[in-house]
Amino acid sequence: MAERTLRGARLGGQSFEDERGIEFAARQQVGYACPQKHEFEITMSVEADVPAVWECPRCGAEALSTSGILKEEKVEKPVRTHWDMLLERRSEKELEDILKERLELLRGGEIGPAHLHRANAKKRHASA
């Protein structure tokens, strides 16, 4: 394996590519200032969407753009409760009918916890 390696080349060392004839993308300097009064600039592509907020490299605080770009306010959805989602699928009249039907089955011993079924079965056997 040693015979196949390039002599004098370091692993991950230097590139043998030449930068002549390469046109770099247009860049811009974007300034930011954090609440701790740290100011810094970030180099970005001219085509990039410049964020309104960037993490301060010194203190980690949220730094705002000095070029006047405003932070977008997130549109928050109103909180939907279980009841709201239920009403999207059924009317209150349907829900009342289902409740009456289920209560009848529960009181009749056809559904519900096992200990209720055993109690009803004992009553039926005692009365028979």
Question: Layout of helices and strands, plus pairs?
Answer:
Layout: E1 27-33, E2 39-45, E3 53-55, E4 62-65, H1 82-89, H2 92-107, H3 114-127
Antiparallel strand pairs: 1-2, 1-4, 3-4
Tell me what you see in this structure.
One of its GO terms (molecular function) is bacterial-type RNA polymerase core enzyme binding. It is a single chain. The chain has a 4-stranded antiparallel beta sheet with strand order 2-1-4-3, with no helix packed on it. The chain is an alpha+beta fold. Among the domains are: 25-72, Rubrerythrin, domain 2, CATH 2.20.28.270; 91-127, no CATH class. The longest helix is centred in the C-terminal third of the chain and has 16 residues, at 92-107. It has helices at residues 82-89, 92-107, 114-127; strands spanning 27-33, 39-45, 53-55, 62-65. The chain has 3 helices and 4 strands; from the N terminus they run ββββααα.
